[in-house]
Please model this.
Amino acid sequence: MIQALNSAMDTMLTRDPDVLVFGEDVGYFGGVFRATDGLQKKHGMTRCFDTPIGEGGIVAAAIGMGAYGLRPVVEIQFADYIYPAFDQIVSEAARLRYRSAGDFFVPMTIRTPYGGGIFGGQTHSQSPEALFTHVVGLKTVIPSTPYDAKGLLISAIEDDDPVIFLEPKRIYNGPFDGHHDRPISPWSQHPASEVPDGYYTVPLGNAAVLREGADLTLLAYGTMLHVALAATNDCGVDAEVIDLRTLVPLDIETIVKSVEKTGRCVIVHEATRTSGYGAELAALVQENCFYHLEAPIERVTGWDTPYPHAFEWQYFPGPARVVEAIQRAMGA
Amino acid sequence: MIQALNSAMDTMLTRDPDVLVFGEDVGYFGGVFRATDGLQKKHGMTRCFDTPIGEGGIVAAAIGMGAYGLRPVVEIQFADYIYPAFDQIVSEAARLRYRSAGDFFVPMTIRTPYGGGIFGGQTHSQSPEALFTHVVGLKTVIPSTPYDAKGLLISAIEDDDPVIFLEPKRIYNGPFDGHHDRPISPWSQHPASEVPDGYYTVPLGNAAVLREGADLTLLAYGTMLHVALAATNDCGVDAEVIDLRTLVPLDIETIVKSVEKTGRCVIVHEATRTSGYGAELAALVQENCFYHLEAPIERVTGWDTPYPHAFEWQYFPGPARVVEAIQRAMGA
Amino acid sequence: AMVLTRAYDDRMYRAQRQGKTSFYMKCTGEEAVAVAQTMAIDAGDMCFPSYRQQGILIARGYPLVEMMCQVYSNVRDPLKGRQLPIMYSSREYGFFSISGNLGTQFSQAVGWAMASAYKGDDRIAATWIGEGTTAEGDFHQALTFAAVFRAPVILNVVNNQWAISSFQGIAGGEQSTFASRAIGYGLPGLRVDGNDFLAVYAATQWAAERARNNLGASLIELYTYRAEGHSTSDDPGRYRPADEAGAWPLGDPVARLKAHLIALGEWSEEQHEAAQKEAAEQVRAANKEAEGFGTLGSGSTASTKTMFEDVYKGMPWHLRRQRQDLGV
Amino acid sequence: AMVLTRAYDDRMYRAQRQGKTSFYMKCTGEEAVAVAQTMAIDAGDMCFPSYRQQGILIARGYPLVEMMCQVYSNVRDPLKGRQLPIMYSSREYGFFSISGNLGTQFSQAVGWAMASAYKGDDRIAATWIGEGTTAEGDFHQALTFAAVFRAPVILNVVNNQWAISSFQGIAGGEQSTFASRAIGYGLPGLRVDGNDFLAVYAATQWAAERARNNLGASLIELYTYRAEGHSTSDDPGRYRPADEAGAWPLGDPVARLKAHLIALGEWSEEQHEAAQKEAAEQVRAANKEAEGFGTLGSGSTASTKTMFEDVYKGMPWHLRRQRQDLGV
Ligand SMILES: Cc1ncc(C[n+]2csc(CCOP(=O)(O)OP(=O)(O)O)c2C)c(N)n1
Ligand SMILES: Cc1ncc(C[n+]2csc(CCOP(=O)(O)OP(=O)(O)O)c2C)c(N)n1
Ligand SMILES: [Mg+2]
Ligand SMILES: [Mg+2]
Model:
């Protein structure tokens, strides 16, 4: 997936002189996860560069550049470190178009790796997506495959609104289905693993049905999408697995259509449970599909604790926990 | 309510030499809403003082003081201005006890006025409570009456965990039931408007049933609690009105007991809808009361836009909108 | 322009007192800052102001009527009634949307300047922040980024000695000057009498020159005095002596410039009175027109459905649904 | 202590390479900073370090075994396996819990110092930040609050010239020194050779004296060099010449102190070798004991149910329920 992201930025830097890429260790080094590897060498110091360690200043600079007319793409080294920029994101980027009645806007993309599974401890494992979904004026995008990662990132860069682009770092360098104790099945077995060269887009706001099924609807995104698929295989229930891809704006039709068909819904995310995005999904599903529901909507999530270093796999909501939820929903 | 809050801080400053009160314009001036009026004069410059305009620094100082062993009570002038302190709150205050295995903790209370209804425009009207309910390690409290305001604030100050104490500024100086076009019924008509002198507490984590009812459960907090009561009177439905008072930890039993009885639930808050705290409440209610529910859980909330200055009353979720939701729920 | 700014402030302040809007903020005593600085930079240069530089718009000839319509949140308000009064915005006049959140514009201005430099554009950015707000992280990030990326920007600290109720010492103004903050970043720091129109003009001209020649950013501390309350919601009587304003030795920038010009024989009492009359007249006329479009609460606003627009470039389904729920 | 610190680093680095834990960070070349500064302040003074001052704990005699158990996240880890290796915490030894979020400790230290002053306690606070992290808002807030409230704190900037892959210029180190940042706040700013043990000691003693006498805060820039990679996840070969470390003229603080002491006749090659042997031995023994309690992945951890503790002082219903869901 990391190469796909790199290719998306390379493609946009080539196509549009107004695109700039910057952040901490992003330029000469190419990013601590190598997402911007080679971009400075190819496009020059003025197009892809290192910044001081100040997330607030990075996002503020991007907002000012956006007001000028550029399309900044900034990297926050870990999602856990986005909070120093929170005021600039929430009070400024998200509100500028509205408060200026369209006079100014912020065509900025904030890329940041999120999620656990890498023994990163409590400050290299967070999944803060729910916070951004509550902030009106932001779009929140999370890819789960290399193909989508490139297509969605290009769409995000071309989008005229600020986009929070959360990257599942656990699958940066290969797939992971949550079975940490088993060999991993390679991307090649994954439908959307082929990444075309050059320009293409995957539109924001469209979910993808990755597996059709009749018995139950599984809603997931990012790394957990693969966990959901693994759980489906493990328990043999004919689940419909939906990859949300964009959290806001949400593809409600695809979800409602599926739940009206299956009558059962399990939501999976790695973020902490209380007020996580699963809460909004559960609220929407029961509002829109109440009379079709045959069982309570289940949420499988990270526990309401920080991500503990030594208990990585007790914390991570793996296939076993998803299977239990599926069985509870089917049993009900 | 403002006098009740002032009295709570006065009481605690008197009882406990480790309590300090500070923030922007809090000391000599007594706060832009007068919440700390007279406290510096009475308790001295070292107990109640003005700080530079730096919310991050204010909270950081409070965390350091907490690590020393003091009980800081800080004011963020408007909830809309808490974001510069977001990193210190989320990454530090909320996690310190956990990451140090109890070695250090933060007995800090952050007071901040929230909510609209005062023509404050988009940066003096926000209701960001949902963001804090998603952050593990924080407690989130919102009073709706003067009696509770004092008792809950004293409990918050005495609590050894960081508490986000959100104050409904619309009812600082008198009650408001959302009927902006009618004369207001005074606090005196409100059961919990009498505020005793001196020390007393209202425990965190307990909701209050403000009106018993058989037909439907109304969940609300802060200003909207009064709107919910007004709506109940307006539509004559026998609703049970529950004041959550503490959002985290939530009093789930009281809620479940009520919804199991009524089978219908309407949630009211002023914050924007998507991923607002109403989503978590809806998710919990359907998880815990699925087989008792006779109608979809309704959410009456602020719109997913910033708070627009000229459209105060089209934005504010007043009694009329609550009545509609109640009728939808009853009709279903 | 200073005279006009003051006349405008007086009128709008009265309008708020008459209940025609919810809120107003004057810049009385600080007119020289915005006006002289605007005159010292080019019309194409981009301003990232705080809420106390209405003088920029007036000096650039932005229509008074539009400013008033914004203050009244009426049907002609260019911001469609969304913003608190005085939170103007005009891309056309190089005036960035004012934020209620202090300090954020300071570091954004640096980004705009970086973009201008990247494009080889010779326009520069100028930004203003109150001395109280220098304590925010944005101030530090602005200076850091401006120094590291040699951004063509003028960073102005308006030291009017008060931040609502707290005097400049609470922001650290007693240990050192705000101008000296620049030293640690390797930026030039100038400190000028903000009530001396010509001094402000000269210092700004120097900094603009420097920025335009890509020699980098400058910080200017403008030492002035907030002669009125913080805003219409404020009561300075509670925290400072009533006569302090009068006692302030560096006086009124308008009176000082007037005296100076008269001494030079370039101006006269008569001309000044005439100018004041003309300004008052201009404001009166504009206000008449603006009030014609409605005042806050008069019900004459943009249509309610505009409330759901501009959250995003397009309107996603959930906002469309909410708009329908409201029935507009 | 410097020798011991280095021996400790070498052992733990090897342990990580052997897969006994997930992560490690060395302070090679910077040992003098933490060790000399710790010796120059009192045992009761409170330290708010970054992740590169393990020398503080070692200089204060914190048990190596406990440090190692933290690195191994094993059953004896005082932090119950919750934190990334090297994020130590010990209230007893005056060592504040290390945060993964850069810079936050700098302004917290000021708060601790304000509390100490409020209590009339004569203990002071000391805090460390990397030169790269000075760009964060916390740095500015720390200096502002320290100046305004005259907090008894020592603010140390460890300029090891690198921030992962970016050299100090990216943080603004070319336009001005980090020590000079203090000037704008009216604080003294000292700049010392961080590899000169005695210079570091003297500067710190002066600042501690000043703080203890309630004369206020000082900022010390410690100029040193990060001789190794940023962490075990880093590969400096990608961004700096392999021999740069060797070429660094101000050399190795251990070798320099050793040479100095030998010149004074206070120390000898033999004593030094003996000291190194002893340190290596001490570390070996401690590591044997620590590994006895398990290494990461060995399964020997605190019990899983502790994962749900200390989120709050008590355990609210939702965490109890989640613990039951996990079946522990
Ligand atoms: C982030 C933030 N914190 C607090 C406030 C509340 N507030 C509005 S103006 C003000 C005082 C600002 O003083 P100063 O920077 O000196 O500007 P002046 O009003 O003197 O022009 C404060 C504290 C705010 N608007 N934003
Ligand atoms: C808020 C935040 N942003 C980014 C990071 C990622 N990060 C960890 S260490 C580091 C470099 C810090 O360099 P410096 O401050 O010079 O300290 P040094 O490593 O040299 O001791 C970065 C960018 C972080 N941990 N926290
Ligand atoms: Mg001021
Ligand atoms: Mg460094």
Notes: The interface with chain A takes residues 80, 83-84, 86-87, 90-91, 95, 98-99, 122-123, 130-131, 133-134, 136-137, 248, 271-272, 274-280, 282-283, 286-287, 290, 293, 295-299, 304-306 of chain B (CB under 8 Å). Residues 206 and 306 of chain B are 31 Å apart (CA to CA). Chain B has a mean pLDDT of 96.
